[in-house]
Task: structure prediction
Amino acid sequence: MLAISTLGNGKIEIIDIPKPKISDNEILLKVKASSICGTDIKIKNFGHFKNPEGKKIVLGHEVSGIIEQIGKNVPSSLFTEGMRVAIAPNIGCGHCDNCISGFTNYCENYQAIGITINGSFAEYLKIPYEYIIQGNISKISDSLSFEEASLVEPLSTVLAASESINIAPPDIVLIIGAGPMGILHLMMARLRGAKKIIVSEISDIRREQALQFGADIAVNPEKVNLKDVVLRETDSKGVNVLITAAPSKRAQEEALELIATKGRINLFGGLPKGQDIISIKSNIIHYKNILITGTTGQSIHQYRKAISIAESKKIDLTKLITARFSLKEAEKAFQTAVLESTLKVVFTI
Ligand SMILES: [Zn+2]
Ligand SMILES: [Zn+2]
Result:
């Protein structure tokens, strides 16, 4: 079968490898759609801290497909061959405090397809036993296309962030960065009832996209003073919610200058390794009672909630798809994924 692998050396390879053989405890998925994530690009360029240097890995963790084969020890009441499913990418050890509370994404010993285990940029994906028993395989309704279902994963990471800062009416929300994740945050904030959404983004194309996706105001922070805009739009109070959806140190440092009393900040985009020391006025946190969260990944519960949001069409994930490619067109797909005008690129298989 075809698959797209990397050694973490800046290159991808289209490889022909044997179709995976499953054990009696595993499931084989016929991959139908798998979207490219910023994480895939990072692993391609720099590898991943979970992997030894030079480990060859098949990329891809945003995935949906059809169950092709079920091992004979897998409870037959749960799954059937031909079932349409989406797969949450992370599993935990199953017994640490984080796993017990449902947050396998914060397990210190997590594993993930496309990161530590071969991923879904392939014709078939072997789904290990732990994925079956931890609830990572979710049935999807016929109303949800495979392409949309592959985008449930990024949607669920945004849902996890929005839950951590509890976006609700009448919040005024500022989103810094209008790449695909910024746009998903915009759609999520709207769904949760934000009164006004301001987007800060230096790219002209991305600002325009943010407005098309329903931002009330899109600001270029290199041309206008973002703080002035925030004060003008909030009766000088500052925004109630601020999300940094860009790997920007400056955005993180400036957040406290823009936030209202009892405001909530989510540092969604991580900073590059070794560049994560920032300087902030901590008294603002103290005197204004500011909540700062950081989130990564999603719990299985959040993943399932994201499926139901996608199925309801309250967030239309199809709008996010800029381009579709076959696995053979991997080079072109990865080149497209990094363009400013691109939101999500999906492999349809
Ligand atoms: Zn992802
Ligand atoms: Zn654990």
The pocket of zinc ion (ligand 1) is lined by residues 37, 39, 61-62, 153-154 (CB under 6 Å). The first strand starts at residue 2 and ends at 6.
